[in-house]
Structure formats: structure tokens, C-alpha cells
Automatic annotation (TrEMBL):
Protein name (database record): Dynein heavy chain
Domain Dynein heavy chain region D6 P-loop: from-to ranges: 97-210
Stretches assigned to the Dynein heavy chain C-terminal domain: 388-689
Superkingdom of this protein's organism: Eukaryota
InterPro entries: AAA_lid_11, AAA_lid_11_sf, DHC, Dynein_C, Dynein_C_barrel, Dynein_heavy_D6_P-loop, P-loop_NTPase
Molecular function terms from GO: dynein intermediate chain binding; dynein light intermediate chain binding; minus-end-directed microtubule motor activity
Biological processes annotated in GO: microtubule-based movement
Amino acid sequence: MSESEQASNMKSCQYDLIYLCLNKEENPHQVNTSIKATLPQEWSDGLDDFQKIIFLKCLRPDKVTNAMQDFVSNNLGQKFIEPQTADLHLVFRDSSAITPLIFVLSVGTDPAADLYKFAEEMKFSKRLNTISLGQGQGPRAESLMRAAMEKGQWVFFQNCHLSPSWMPSLERLVEQVDPDHVHKDFRLWLTSMPSPQFPVMILQNGSKMTVEPPRGIKANLLRSYITLSDDFLTSCTGKIDEFKHLLLSLCLFHAVLLERRKFGPLGFNIPYEFTDGDLRICMSQLRMFLMEYTEIAYKVLKYTAGEINYGGRVTDDWDRRCVMNVLDDFYAAKVLDANFCYDESQIYHQLPPVSEHQAYVGYVRSLPINDTPEIFGLHENANITFAQNETYRTLTDLLELQPKTATAGENRDVVIEKLAKDVLSRVPHPLPLAAVMEKYPVMYEQSMNTVLTQEIIRYNRLLNMIHNSLQELLKAMKGLVVLSQALEEMSKSLFNNAVPVMWSKVAYPSLKPLASWVLDLIQRVEFVQAWVDHGIPNVFWISGFFFPQAFLTGTLQNFARKYVISIDTVSFGFQVMKLTSKDVIQTPTDGCYIRGLFVEGARWDPATHVLGESRAKELFTEMPVLWLQPEQNRQTPTSGIYMCPVYKTLTRAGTLSTTGHSTNFVFTIEVPSSKSQKYWIKRGVALICALNY
């Protein structure tokens, strides 16, 4: 072997070693230490800390944001990655009567409580005039401001973005403030979401504070406790210890709900904007119910918090189920134990009942910045998806900030034309509907004929749209027809490997990029074509249906008509088969076999034949063949199963229907389980018809 080949093999072995090392480590981002995933000597010496982050991006993109935190901490200091709370004393010290103080809001934040507390500390609570701007509030706000300038009061105008028509008047009022005649104690406080109608002059001359929602359990707990005091902690006469314990539990529950959103559909189907106001009303109710009842009314506490205060925002039934199950862990008698821990790692725990406010704040400050999914009841894999999305979003923002320069490459029109021709040649033509209807006529005893016809009608509409639009685009690129706005948008989508909007409007829900989407469409049409050619399949590919709910209804209808019973009394029983789809050689007597579902948040364990824990770094696993068995007047089992929702795509969210479920929701499957339902509910376990790749 030559020296060059030896060097090449050695380099290849190094790559394999590095990959294995970084892949097995839980914290591979700490490549600049001697403890975690140490790089080979020549790599470690030849790369600086920033270059190591770039190297890490290639192998473990989910850990890039953690490496960025280490990089900032090492070069700028720990305080630049620590959550910081707003100090209004410092802001006020630099203000004056002619300088407006502006809170630039973000979703889910409200600085009103902080300002009210600051006004009390400054002995200005009785001299603070507050008004929430909106329709018809302009004249009242103007009179309040003029009176405050004369008497030396504070005025607090909330939500300026909701009164864009009055903003020119506010700008005129601020311009007219005379520094020689205005009272020196006068201050103008404003809050507004980013809005193009907000006066630029006020922004330029004012002191601006950005109020962003805290990120992480630590930051959320700190925000909750920083506004409290020892007087409040000891205000629950007769049950001070219980109040302290349940208050910490409540604040932690609030933080968990807020942070579950970052995990996407694994946390909640819809990312609800829970606010500090929800927490404050729960605090007041907790104190009130503890003082009014001899025994701690956990049932009342759970109902008011889970169903009313927080649950009032929840619109999806599966999310409501999740909120109530999470709340069960925090509003319970077990949290009154001074040694109670909320997680197995014992990071989040109760404090001794004699603890004062400073002890709670000190404990919160000692918590880790980055949360483990354990406190949320999620698997470690949940962090991978979140971290990857966070990395790609951060890097995209960084690229947007870079100067734009022209790059050499293949002509854009040539690329689009090549893609259009490729898709046009691969996508099947519409199926002959008349021949199918003749072969599979409408029959009372076989509803599947109607289901097949409806599926072909839907797919034909999509296939016609694809062929017609691509042919129009190719003509437009040659100058034979006018290039419309719709065709222009379509060409951009093709170039960006995205499904054009005009296709997705008549298509089934999908998150796949264009290349994968075309392959998926071809497979779907092949599934329908095989049904037409060879009759009803032994195993139905449920992911291949345009509208799977119609197929499920058709299966129930066949059973009801066969046995002459009311379809309202028929529902599905479920059996997970040990056979593969290739092993199934005939259709069942009643019901049907289905395949094509993927488990997210867990996996199917074929050894124990129950739902099992996910393997590390395995985000999705395929579910075996399922037998849907229609039964009359079926009783749902009370144990040994997990009521698992089935969704069309990974987003899970969709337009909410009157049933309380999204249009993305298909139906519920009873999956055998050796663990409690609560365990999998907190895991966010669901079955998905189609992935995003």
C-alpha cells in the first residue's frame, strides 16, 4: 500500500472515530474540554473553538446551540447566556420628564405587574394613571397626559399598537412637552408590539426596553419568584408551609406548560400563549382556597387551574387531556413532602418549609440553564428535534444578516425548466374514472367501491392540476403564454424544492419537500391503481388515502350492513398483528388490516407486544399491521391500553372542528401498554400517517 493510500485510510479512520465519539456522547459540544469527546490531537490543535462548532454542525447539528452558549460564555462571560430580569430602577435613573419609556412587547409578555410593583417602591402607586388604548380611548388618554404633566404624575399607555389612528396625536403631544414647564416628576410609560404605525420620533427620543418571554424552566421560575415577597409567602394564615410548597409546584407547572411548547407537537398540538396573568390568578385562588377550606381541596384547585384558568385557552381536546395529566403531578398531596423531587434526577425539588423568599430565589438561580426533557415527562429524543430546529433557525437568521453577494452557478431558468420536465415525466396521468365506476359500481353491501371512486376523483383533480400547471409554466418560460403571478410563485417553489401553493390547495396534507412529495404521490397513485387492477387489497395502506376518515366509515358501514345493525352502535376494536404486510394473504372476515403508521414519542416493542420506550436517537418507528375489528356496543378497556390519537402529518394541528379535534386528526387507536396512560400522554405519543421526509 502506498503512502498516500495509508494516509487516506488513516484520515478515514479518524473521521469514523470522531463520528462515533461525537455520536455516542450526550454532550459532544464540549469538544474544547478534556472530559467530553476529545478530538484527535491534530484536529484539536489545528481548530479554534469557533471552527470546532462548524465541525460539530456537520456531525451533530442538534448540539450546535449548546456549543454556541459555551463559546459566548468563554469569550464574553457567563452573564451573557444567563436569563436577565429587567431592572426598572436603572432605566428610571436615566430617564427624564421629556423622555418616554417604551416597553417593546413580544407575544406572551406583560410588563404591567413589574411597573405597578416599581411604582409602589417609588411611592408613586397613587400617582400612576393607567389606560389601555383602543377605540375611543384617545381623548381620555390625552386629558390624562396633560393633567399628569402639570401635577407630576406618571401615565401608562398600554398597547399602543391597538390604536394606530391616535398615534399621530401621541407624537404631537410628546413633541409639545416643554422641558421648562413640565413637572420634573412626570413620566410617560408606553407599551407596544412592533408596529409600523408607532411614531419613529418617539422611538428615537425614548428609552426602549425589550420584554421577551423567559426561556427555560430556570428563567420562568425566576420571573415568577422575583415579583413575590416574604409577606406574600407568609400571607396564607394557618397553612403557610402548604402554601409555600404548592406555590412552588404551581410556578413549576406554569414553567413546564410554557416550555413544552418548544417541543412542538410532542408538547402541544397548538402552541398556546399562556401568560403571567394565568399564573397570578391561580396564585390568588390557591391562597384563597387554602384559607377557606379545612382540608386542601385538590379537586377544586385542579379544576380552576386546569379547566378554567389555563384550560380556557386550550382549544384542542388532546391538549386539554395533556394539561390535566401534567397538572396531576403538581397539584397533589405528595408535593407537600419537604424532600419531594419532581424529577428522577432530583434537580427540581421542594425546599424546607422555613425557607424565605431569598432562599427560593437562590435555589432558582442555581438551576441549570438547559432543561432536560425529564421534567416535562418527555423522552430524551424530544430534545433532538427541538435542538435541530433551533440550530437551523439560528443559522438561517445569521445568514440573513450576512451581506448578499452574487454567486456563480447554473442559470435559474434552466434549473426550473429541468425540474418541471422531470416532475411532468414522472407524475402519473389521471386514472380513467368511467372504467373504474363500471368495474366497481355503487353497491349496498360493499361501501369500499364508493370509497375507491371518491379517492380517484380527488387524486385526478390533483394530477390534472399538476400536469396543466407544469405545461403552462413551460410554455410561459418559452414566451408562448403570459407568465402570471401564480406561475411565478410556482417557479419559485420548484426552485426552492417546495410544493407549490396551487398544488397544495387541492392536495392532501403533507410536510414533505417537493422531491419526497413527488415520490409519495407516485406511491399513492400506484396503491390506488393496484386496487383498481387487482381488487380490494389484503392490507390497506392508510397513509395512501386522500381522506382516510371515509375509508374508516366505509369499513364500519360494511359491518353494519352485513349484520343488519345500526352503524351508530358499531365501533372499532384493535389488534396489533405479529404478521408483516407481505405475510397477509387474505382479507379478514370482518373489518380490515391497515399499515403505514409511524409511532412518535415511543416505539412498538415486538418482544413484549406492548408500547415501549424509544431508543436513543430514534425519533420515529414503524407500527406493525393493525386489525381494525368492528364490534357492536363495544366497551372501551379501562387498563392495559393507551388511547393513541392518529394524525395525518407531524404538525398534528389543523382547523378545529365542532368535535374539538383538528382536521389533521384521523381517529383513536387502543395500543396495548404495560404503563399508565398518563405516562404516554406526557410523552406526547401519537401515530402519524406520513413523516416529513
